[in-house]
Amino acid sequence: MGALAPLVAVVLVAEFGQYWPEAVRGSHAIGEVVRNLAYALIGALIFNWIIVELPERRRRRAAYEYNKVAMEVLITVGAASIAEYRHLHPAGPAALDAWRRESVAGCARAIAAVNPLYFGPERAGMLQTIIFGVRTALDGMKGVQLLLDADVAHALALFPSDVGLNQLQVTRDNRGHVPPERDAHIVWELLEGSRRLYRALRRNVPEMSLNLGQSVLSDGTVVEASEADLLRPGDLK
Q: What is the pTM of this model?
């Protein structure tokens, strides 16, 4: 509808111009043609807005609202996982740079050095549950991706899961433990997927409120996820 205002201005000029003496011979006839063309274009714009744009906006809004929980799941798996890593880092939360893959891997090794049971069978089961949740969320949104903004659909297409070339597979050693390096790889890939999706949603649907989630440790400690792990200053510019 951005073109409506210029067209209305053209119509007004053409209408009032008919009451002025012709500065150039035939200008009134040309004005009639321009005025009628502008009226036709205004009618076409209004028709397109009512028949095409409004229903498309309703479908788009419904697609986001209906899949909000699934999108929050995909954001939480990365944001909450890295928040848990930071909370458990033996050197303190500030020692983890969540924007460097090497720092995330180093954090996993540091946790394993002081608390190897963290990566035990319970952790392996939790990771498998998380990956299953990712797959379920992605599968549930396949039918509506055409209704979403291109950036959001692209972020969903790139989200890591248990299929494709970038598979998230939980491996275990002979004790049933997850190797820290493998755990860190899964956490990093989930975090990157969450970041892509969160940035796309903030750019395209800024009015949509999103819960970043939290992680609950085995001792009952609740660790809140932080937007600072998903967005850097200037990411939305």
A: 0.79
Residue of higher predicted confidence among 143 and 178: 178
* Range(s) of the domain holding residue 85: 67-229
The residues pairing with 224 across neighbouring beta strands, listed in sequence order, are 214
Model confidence band, residue 81 (pLDDT cutoffs 50, 70, 90) = very high
* 135 and 111 part of one domain: yes
164 and 188 both lie in a single domain: yes
Q: How many domains does the chain have?
A: 2
Tokens read off for 151: 């950036």
Q: Are residues 74 and 140 in the same domain?
A: yes
Is the dihedral angle over the CA atoms 228, 230, 236, 237 positive or is it negative?
A: positive
